[in-house]
Amino acid sequence: MATEPADVLVIGAGATGGVVARRLSEAGFSVVCLEQGDWHDKSEYRGAELDWELVMRKQWSTSPNVRGLPQDYPIDETDAEVSPLMYSAVGGSMLIFAGAWPRMLPSDFRVRSLDGVADDWPLTYDDLRPYYERSDRHFGVSGMGGDPAYPPGGEDPPLPPLPLGAGGLKVARAHTRLGWHWWPEPNSILSVPYDGRRPCVQRGTCQQGCSEGAKASTDLTHWPKAIAGGARLVTGARVRRLETNGAGLVTGATWLDRDGGEHFEPAKVTVLAANAIGTARLLLLSASPAHPDGLANSSGLVGRRLMMHPFANVGGLFDEDLESWQGQFGCSIESFEFYETDERRGFVRGAKWGLAPTFGPINAALPSRAGTQVWGPDHHLHVRSHLGRGANWGLFGEDLPDEANRVTLSATLTDSSGIPAPEVHYRISENSRRLLDFHIEKATESLREAGAHTVEVDRLMRYSGWHLLGTARMGDDPATSVLDRWNRAHDVPNLYVADGSCFVTSAGVNPTSSICALALRAADHMVDTRFNQQVPL
Amino acid sequence: MNGRSDLDEGRRAAFAAVADLLIPEAHGMPSAADVVGDARLRFVLTARPDLGEPLLEALRPELGTDAADRIAALEREETDRHAALLQVVVFGYYTDGGVRQLLGYPGQEAKQLYSWKVPPFIEEGLTDQVLARGPVWRDPATGRRAEQQRPTPSGRQEE
Prior knowledge:
Chain A has 537 residues and is of the alpha/beta class. Helix content of chain A is 24%, strand content 18%.
């Protein structure tokens, strides 16, 4: 392995690892990335195969605890009301995400000022907008400009919107009658050929890997460009800890290969891009006599304020065949009608709604979201009434930060390399429960207006921890934040955290678009300040 | 039991009884007992080898010959094996070509997009009506819903 330190060591080759590596390598930095997973070829994805609905519940589950693959680390979630979901690979959890790509709204950055709860961000929507626009071009985002849920101006999504599908059109018409907001959802899924990639074919299997390569993931959109720019990506590399010197700077990472061999990768600057659970875990694992509570943790906030978006699924069933097993599993339409605070509702903040397809016949028989199992002769009527005849509103409620919701290290559970696993402690707040109750009621009204004869509700889905946020929040005060406004650790001037750990508040939208825009902004800052960067001697 | 349907005679009979109870012949659809034979079991257990061991346990003779009692006992005391048994029945049944044909489900098909066409929601003017209601976002400067920017007489937006 290298003996000369890289300019930048990136840990994790997922969404933000790819963003940072591409930007820095194109700017001439020498970049090394350590990724515990591997590359996947599109031919490995099962969406077009007969066994798709079988393997999506095991090998292609979104839960590492269900998959149990050697490259996964287990998560002790016995004290959590929601299961964290992720995937270890080049491209990371983008391989299994839906592709929905909404931005945060202006009010999301000013929650304390506007609603007297949580904290304001040290930046605004307008600060982040140029990075959203660049990021949209890099990933290839389909959508339609002019959404009145956002301030006017700026660039439209680079590609035309994806189809609404029959269900989306019914619900859009219903919202028009109700006078409620709706808009075509932006998705990082191609509606037309773009950047050498093929467009979406509406197969509806986005969360088990896109076999067309139409859904964005950094193994397709960023890593080839980063590698062409000179970046070196090492797969099967599981980082055990970050090492520091007497000056309090990170000198690199100790990591294990697939055979258990130990290595050290030196670097001038280190960027953690391992998601809000993996990054917190690594900072805690990097405790030393100089940092007994974990690295970059003088605030005591590393691992705390975990936010995962309490999620409800509200599914409508219709008489007519909507072929609702097809369509992008990002979303067809979104609604921000009830997103902003209205104190008369008995809670603060709100939720974004996204309308999604409904899977195939196996999910109709054994529902993974809202619904019941019916056996005996009526089983057939049940499956016929569900298959292809549904529309699902997914409700992402804003999750206010709570220091008791946190990641710690397990004293008993380890990964396959013997490294302590993360323990997740997570409870849903009363505000979130009220928020979900209200939004479920309104989403039910939406679907009834659209003509649904039955509405089925999964009030708080256990396996819905797709959005991992907040465990190393940014801020201007080192006493109350882990990172500064540029994603750099207050305590360790050559350590950045590029993933969703940096979130101050969760907003109520799918966060990948914002996570990637923030990572691009952090990478720009690294380029801009390269000559002032403190590095180990 | 990796990818093979090497159920002994007793377990095969127990599986058929459970399959017939869960998904019987009715409403023009066949029974799972008739559909999920050795070929379908092989398919399921090849795709999901993790189900093999719990399936064998769920079908063990000690649980008796009554399918309803077997399912109830598993659901009560061995939830993982109960789930595995249900999954094997359902997976086998709904991956059968004949069953899918009867349901009118062709599988997850690739469909060509025609993004150059004006979408129906534009043709119907649905987004026009959303726009006509004005901004939805909350302006942090005022704390209230943003106001519509009105065109000036010259047609330019107000600053």
